[in-house]
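Each lists chain and fold; for instance:
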Amino acid sequence: MSKLKTLLRNLGPGLLFASMAIGTSHLVLSTKAGAQYGWVMVIPIVLANILKYPFFEFGIRYTSVTDQSLIQGYLNLGRKYLWIYALVTVVSTFTILAALYIVTAGLLMNLFDISGVSEGVVALCLFVFIGTVLIIGKYRFLENSLKAVISILFVALLITTVMVLNKGAVPGAETFQRPEIFNEVGILFLISLVGWMPTAVEASGWVSLWSMENQKTMKEKPTLKESLQEFNAGYIMTALLAVFFLIIGWMTLYGTGTELSGNAVVFADQVVNLFTTHIGNWAYILIAVAAFATMFSTCMTAHDAVSRVSLDVLQKLFPDKSIFSSKHSFAVTVILMALINWIVIVGFGANMGNLVALATFVSFVMAPLVGWMNLKTVMGNDVPEAQRPKMGLQILTYLGMIFLSFFALYYCWILLV
């Protein structure tokens, strides 16, 4: 019981990680994986969660041991490493939030039957509202507001998954043919799925900064073991929910020939109907609210993270510039991130599919490099030898880098041939 109390008291970075990850990669990609390719897609989902684990764990480990962010660790290795991460962050800045917000806008329009306005306008309203909440509430409000949302979502998805399994798979169409996985279309989808499952590898820096913020709010700093336990709880929940979404897509759509739309509003309606088909129309409003809450919390978490990490990178690259260290710098960065990504949404014509594909591909290609940097950081002189990752975790890290590199190289080969 005391261990559970300690875990609940230390809830923070792992909870935020779960909230941020249970978004497009789960609601969109996991559901689509099950719907298009069936149960076999559980293999890349589980592999991605296992092989990417060390990359994120190192963010918690480094901060817990050194009281510094992982970004500072890159700088300690050498300025070139920080510039590499800065490049990855810039690309993420122009894609991830835009992809998340457009899906959330679609869910909101579906929930309240909003018509006559574009997804871009609704997304702009969300940017303004969430940006205001982040500026006023800061980290503590973010953490507290997500505890109930994640708990309710996990229970709701567990119940829905059990009901779907109990009802059984829908009958497939007579003309249905199992789609190829290892052709160009299948590989591209695998890259999207693995690239953002459970989330982008550069999010290890985000987790590190949340860990620092969490320590500031604690009366007593948690130990390395306690910090890792809290993060592991959030990570396991994230992986389970990915499998839940896959099962729901597989049992309700696989073999029917129904394709999930690339339009945010249509997709939102399709996903909500997947749930109500098995629970009943009476639950439509509850499911729609839960789906919207999922994406809303993801937007809020990712917006906070991208703003926080962008500011931290700028402060370390340009320490002499007082503009990046003023008391209003975080608020300005939150507003700037909102403006940049809204422009991206308008420029892409609010096409969710293009945004998700671009964001996930960039994250996928850069993942091995960021993973190697993380390993190099936690194995460096900043971390005492006794608190460095054990050999098993180091081996898992190399396996993860090889796994991600193989798919990235195979994708490049497809493009060239």
Q: What stands out?
A: Residues 119-167 form the longest helix (49 residues). DSSP finds 16 helices and no strands in the chain. Confidence is low (pLDDT under 50) at residues 1-10. The CA atoms of residues 93 and 306 lie 7 Å apart.
